[in-house]
Specification:
The structure is a homodimer.
Chain A: E1 7-18, H1 26-40, E2 44-50, H2 53-63, E3 69-72, E4 83-86, E5 90-97, H3 111-114, E6 117-125, E7 128-136, H4 149-166, E8 172-178, H5 186-195, E9 198-199, H6 200-203, E10 206-208, E11 238-244, E12 248-257, E13 275-283, H7 296-346, H8 357-404
Parallel strand pairs in A: 1-2, 7-8, 10-12
Antiparallel strand pairs in A: 1-13, 2-4, 3-4, 5-6, 6-7, 8-11, 9-11, 12-13
Chain lengths: ~400, ~400
């Protein structure tokens, strides 16, 4: 320690996979996570997929001694699943819900119901305010034909914009979460480039854990083996990212991941491996972490790439909006026709009922059902179009700003 | 001008009431607004309820000469209706959509479909970055029995939190919009107290316009006279609020509202009056605008009052969630019973069909309809409960912080 004192910050990040009734051995694992966190006493714990508020409450009670401050972020139908435990006082919290998060009718993927968000807490970290974010982005279900890529890119962009707009409130920004993106994916390059966040894995002086820092590995007994077939070593989708805002420097001394079963047990914490970083935060002369001017060109390329993908999503959403709207109009026309026929029969225009009453009613109910469904779909895709269009616009503005920079 | 140069900023704020097919003489009024803005050349124009993107495009073309920078915020099914025109370069934009905004089934009120939001632009205002927000909160349809009060309070709270978290990016924060709250309402006291924003009307050295600064007045030929019966002078629900963040001072030199018909015409701009402020921004020693410590007690009272109202909304939402859930279970039971009866008949257990086929199918369709509807309602109210609960928690945290402050 030279000059100003150093804050040594130990951070723990884990996607807990704690879905009530669905996740295997959930209660046992949550207990295990709680026990380990109590023993290890980190400074800051960022958890995702704690969908049950009861699990959070149990953890809070268990961890009250070593992590006196905590927050659970509520959103969506199921919840955001995000929570934070901290040794440092939590000064303020903010929840930002992404404008797009999958489709309500994709019940099997369920992302829409979670109300995926980024939960931000402002901490008083001994010498400086720390902004800490816990988050999860939309899952990737099929890498080859990733229908959710535009949504994930909108989320990455909104996250980056959110960080840019809120990060001035603190000296250090610290993000931990399951980004559901591989390190070289356009979304993560966009997020890192546009915010200047640095990847603890790439910057760490020492690393210990799964090869390449992978956090979803075939060796984990809960992980989905078929999904990981193309990646025999696993994939890295959980990250700890950081940057210094003002006259501070942040260095990553050590990064670790868990490797399979927790010590003394036969099961791992979750289907994801936990990521643990030890950071050194020190007040110094010049700020670091801001994207240097020379990187503008590369950043412009990333923004262009992301904008192209968002454009693809926009056109798909426009097509879906159009076809659902057309279907709704057809259903409405059918209903009107039927109403006219029924009125005609009632008024005694026809000598006899042209259709059997039963089929007539069945058709009317079907038409009504289709009308309601397609109208809802049309509204949903209208919202989707608006948000994708808005993001495309914002990215264009960003590109212009990058090009105009001296 | 002494010492550092002063920036004289002229701001125009208007709820344009430009709803396609519904608002009276919309195109004429939008043209009129454009002409006036071009003649008057303000520095910053914040508009709400510009629901049609075509109207925005028309305005942008017309105003390109005097307001070279502009942004339209897209959200929701219909849109946020928010746009900003500026003489200063727009550096960045951010849209924050409130987590609660009325009910989708209240079609006659339509707030839910708008995706009401706060649109934020970061401007480069000659000497300092300015954060400018244009926004609208949920409308008040019945002051005596205001079912939307909890939603509006959640919005006011989220707005205040959003401003607190993002305002460090600028030296001056400037908010213009239709807050749909009277000056003494708990929501506006909460917003002002929690952010330290100052009311241009209260601070202005000179005022000119409708009595008490009212912006919804019976004299306006488009305003709803019956709504304004209890308020013969009108009500003030459109505001320009501001605060200085860092070493700047902001003073309001003049505030004006329009009074009925625009000059040279027989119609006003909108059913709301426009608010125009002339602000002086100067770099100085100490920051102003932050809520002083002595005001903490009063602020705690406001937060407590708001939290009580949010609690009332929470209990109502819980009741609605419960009753919609119960209804869904009943509909499901009925469907299952019918399925069992139908299967029984098919399997030849009964000697004859106990019910007429037509009524049987009608009942099944009805039960299915009720099931879909009540399940959707249940999900919606679950989200509502989560957001109200989350806000209640955040307010409690704020109260604790206020009480613990030395």
């Amino acid at each position: 320690m030279e000059g100003e004192p150093t804050l040594r910050l130990r951070v723990f990040d884990l996607n807990c996979w704690a879905i009530r009734y669905l996740s295997k051995r959930r209660q046992e694992r949550v207990r295990l996570i709680g026990d380990t966190l109590r023993q290890e006493s980190f400074d800051l714990v960022l958890l995702q997929e704690v969908w049950s508020e009861q699990d959070y409450s149990d953890l809070r009670v268990k961890l009250a001694g070593c992590y006196p401050f905590s927050h659970y972020f509520r959103s969506g139908v199921i919840g955001s699943g995000l929570c934070v435990f901290s040794r440092f006082p939590i000064l303020d919290t903010l929840l930002y819900q992404y404008s797009l998060n999958g489709y309500p009718y994709m019940l099997q993927h369920g992302d829409w119901f979670c109300g995926k968000s980024v939960g931000q807490v402002l901490l008083w970290g001994v010498t400086a305010p720390l902004l800490s974010l816990s988050l999860q982005l939309h899952a990737e279900y099929c890498r080859e034909k990733d229908a959710y890529l535009p949504h994930r890119l909108v989320q990455a962009w909104e996250l980056a914009q959110f960080i840019r707009h809120t990060s001035k409130a603190a000296d250090v920004v610290l993000l931990g979460g399951d980004l559901n993106m591989h390190p070289e994916d356009v979304g993560i390059r966009l997020l890192r480039g546009w915010t200047g966040l640095r990847d603890a894995f790439a910057e760490a002086r020492r690393f210990e854990g799964c090869k390449n820092g992978c956090t979803l590995v075939p060796d984990n007994c809960f992980s989905n083996k078929s999904e990981l077939l193309p990646f025999p070593l696993g994939i890295r989708i959980d990250y700890i990212l950081y940057k210094a805002i003002s006259s501070f420097t942040v260095k990553c001394e050590e990064l670790k991941t868990t490797t399979g079963p927790a010590p003394g047990t036969d099961i791992p914490f979750s289907d994801h491996e936990a990521v643990m970083a030890t950071l050194h935060i020190q007040r110094q002369g010049q700020p670091v972490g801001a994207p240097p001017g020379t990187a503008d060109l590369a950043l412009a390329d990333v923004v262009t790439e992301a904008r192209t993908e968002v454009g693809v999503g926009l056109r798909a959403a426009q097509r879906q909006r159009y076809s659902s709207g057309r279907m709704a109009v057809l259903a409405l026309l059918l209903l009107l026709l039927q109403a006219a026929a029924a009125l005609g029969t009632l008024a005694g225009l026809g000598t006899e009922q042209p259709f059997p009453k039963f089929s007539f009613c069945l058709l009317a109910f079907l038409a009504l059902g289709v009308l309601v469904l397609t109208t809802s779909l049309h509204m949903f895709h209208t919202m989707e179009v608006k948000m994708l269009h808005g993001t495309e616009d914002q990215m264009w503005m960003a590109l212009r700003a990058l090009q105009e920079r001296p």
